[in-house]
Amino acid sequence: MLPQSRIFLMDRILNPATNLRTASAGKSDRNLTRSMGDAACFGGMVGCGETYFSAFALAVGLSETASGLIASIPLLVGGVIQLVSPRAIAWIGGYRRWIVAGAVLQSLAFLPLAYAAWTGSLSIVMFLLIASVYWAAGLSTGPAWNTWIEQIVPTAGRARFFSRRSRLQQICTFSGLMVAGLVLQWTSHQDMALTGFAGLFFVAAMLRLVSASFLHRTRNGPQNVTHVELRQREVAEKPEEERVDYRSAIQLLAYLVAMQVFIQLSGPYFVPYMLGQLEFDYVVYVGLIALAFLSKVISFAFWGRIAEESGAAKVLWFGGIGLVPLASLWIVSTNLVWLAVIQILSGIAWAAYELGFFLMFFETLPAKHRTRLLTYHNFANTLAICVGALAGAAILAYWGTTSQTYYYLFGLSSTGRLLCLGLLVGAVLPKHSLKSIGMRVLSIRPGAGSVTAPIIASAEE
């Protein structure tokens, strides 16, 4: 009787299909490992990098209004550039090249910030330009990454993989956030806060560079179709009966855009309010952000069960209602315990809102149109962020950056969110429900939730 190892060797020699399957499995495993490495490094970059842009603006001597604009206006550049990304992908020669180029450019965007922190000088125009490059490189590759990763990750076990990947990114984001906060607290006590920012931005650049190397070493999947080809197919294959889904999606999009305007009316200005008006130190500031982030991550599982049992529409309603009073609650008191409670409630409400909206959005859209329409959604979303932030900046510029003006912003934001619920009342929401969908955390924002992007391939039908 032949040994088992010899039988296996003979099978590989006599059956080439076995070789192909083994090679394909090995390639897939390595790709999954590299994707996990990318998630870890990307999460660390988010935690210690872009999350501190607004705080750095104040530290380097810019105004409170400028600090809020830094956290919002640059996103519009990324939203616009991703509209032309299909042609850029075709020109550059594929998804992977486009994604890796974006990751490298995003890494390089941190270097002038590190230099500015080291020298202690940076104008608002230059900061807006650097932040715009950062967000352009990040958001413009989002739809391409969604399509590319779907080709990389095997269908079997896909939901489990993306669940593990999202969890790893969240852990690394939280770790980066906390470590960075402690670094800034220590350096500020040594009168070296700007040196601390310089070190953090340099570390963020290196983490994103390592992330880019993981992406570069990830091999392409068997289907490597360009965005342009996909769009041509979608138009040709679009059946008449799917148009009703578009109308429902537009209603949901209108609600999101309107809500985003009023959320961003106050959202970008919570950082200058905490660090400028309340004069919190970095440990308190980071602690409040961390509470919202943790409560959001933890409550996702709870809202996921609600969505599976009762439908995503109910989760979206819970989230939409929960977001209404959050901004105005900051008017009640500046007591730390009270603000901590608000942040915990904020995380819970934001988890319901984001999960409910994305589940509804993806249920409404036909599967083959999701990437293209997600691009349009991202543009509308960033446009709404820009409009809301500019309106908030105008109010602060006209009445001055006083506590009373901030209270007006918070109250107006809550009032607008309440009115937006009227748009949701008229929306025709589907009754079926996806089981789950993974998220990528792109930034952490106090008072305005985190900037997240859905992972299309993780949607579990």
Would you spell out the secondary-structure blueprint of this structure?
Blueprint: H1 4-14, H2 16-48, H3 53-59, H4 64-70, H5 73-81, H6 85-92, H7 95-119, H8 124-139, H9 142-152, H10 158-189, H11 193-217, H12 227-237, H13 243-266, H14 270-277, H15 282-310, H16 312-323, H17 326-332, H18 336-364, H19 370-399, H20 403-425, E1 436-444, E2 450-460
Antiparallel strand pairs: 1-2
Helix pairs in contact: 1-2, 2-10, 2-11, 3-4, 4-14, 4-19, 5-8, 5-19, 7-8, 7-9, 7-11, 9-19, 10-11, 10-15, 13-18, 13-19, 13-20, 15-16, 15-18, 16-18, 16-20, 17-20
Give a verbal description of the structure.
This protein has 461 residues and is mostly helical. The chain has one domain (41-219, 243-460): MFS general substrate transporter like domains (Growth Hormone, Chain: A, Up-down Bundle). The protein contains 20 helices and 2 strands. The chain starts with a helix and ends with a strand. 50% of the residues are buried. Mean pLDDT is 84; it is low at 1-14, 16-24 and 223-244. It comes from Rhodopirellula baltica SWK14. Keywords: Membrane, Transmembrane, Transmembrane helix. This is Major facilitator transporter. GO terms for molecular function: transmembrane transporter activity.
C-alpha termini separation:
48 Å
How many β-strands, per DSSP? 2
CATH class: Mainly Alpha
Envelope shape: globular
Please name the CATH topology. Answer: Growth Hormone, Chain: A
Tell me the series of helices and strands, N- to C-terminal: HHHHHHHHHHHHHHHHHHHHEE
Q: Show unreliable segments.
A: 1-14, 16-24, 223-244
Number of discrete domains: 1
GO molecular function, one term: transmembrane transporter activity
Keywords: Membrane, Transmembrane, Transmembrane helix
Protein name: Major facilitator transporter
Domain Major facilitator superfamily (MFS) profile: 246-461
